[in-house]
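Weekly puzzle thread! Below is a chain. First person to post its structure in token form gets bragging rights.
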Amino acid sequence: MAKARELRRRIRSVEKTRQITKTMEMVATSKLKRAQDRVVAARPYAAALADVIADLFHPELSQQFPLLRPMERPRRVALVLITSNRGLCGGFNANLIRLARQRLAELQGEGVEVELHPIGRKGIGYFRYVGQALASQRQDIGDRPTPAHAAEVMEPLMARFERGELDAVEVVFAKFNSPVSTPPTTLRILPIQAPVGGKRGVANYILRPSAEEIVGGILPLYVHNQMYRALVETAAAEQGARRTAMKNATDSAGDMIDWLRRTYNRARQAQITQEIAEIVGGSEALKG
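Winning reply:
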């Protein structure tokens, strides 16, 4: 009897857990849709900026604009790591942290001084735990990043890059291909790679303002947008990972409930059989 009561208690407990994970799965699904919309909206703008730069680019601009300065052998690199503020999303954060550690080790193995700039509580917490020095940290961006957040992250790094204090800026983020394909990725944001493949060129155009002025105004926007894309893709990937994790947890809870109910039914059947046997035995004893 005690075993049956314990099984009933466990069934109720797992049912409550399944209800929670199912609710979290539904919330993550809703957030994922909004995050996907932000990813889709950001891509055409980034492509348009890249096209304009490619159309107006000529090699002399690399000397005029520090953001286009070719990098030979970097001495000091800023590594930005984007993770989530919350857990319950499977191995999402662990995979990003693992890639950041690998990239950190690669650069340090080449004799490069690396500054770490984590965004998100999970990355910050891990590197604090292992004693890694942090050049800066952000916990306020969350799962709804804005272009203003991207500008706040990149403006000080761009200024230091232009002054020659940094030779490169890289970001580790989750590239959002689909809700089930979000590989951790490293992207070099600075220096901006010399673009190729402009659609039309400007050889036959007289521009006012000049091509140099246009490029000078667009380059910071392009850099900001690269960071914004990394932020929104990681946010979407987080929700996709959380939805998958919560669905798996809900399915596992359902399987456990089925097993507990079968076990409970067997225990209850055995108990009833035993009680019947005792009644029959008592009846036979009275007859005897």
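Puzzle host: Confirmed. Bonus trivia for everyone else. The mean pLDDT is 88.
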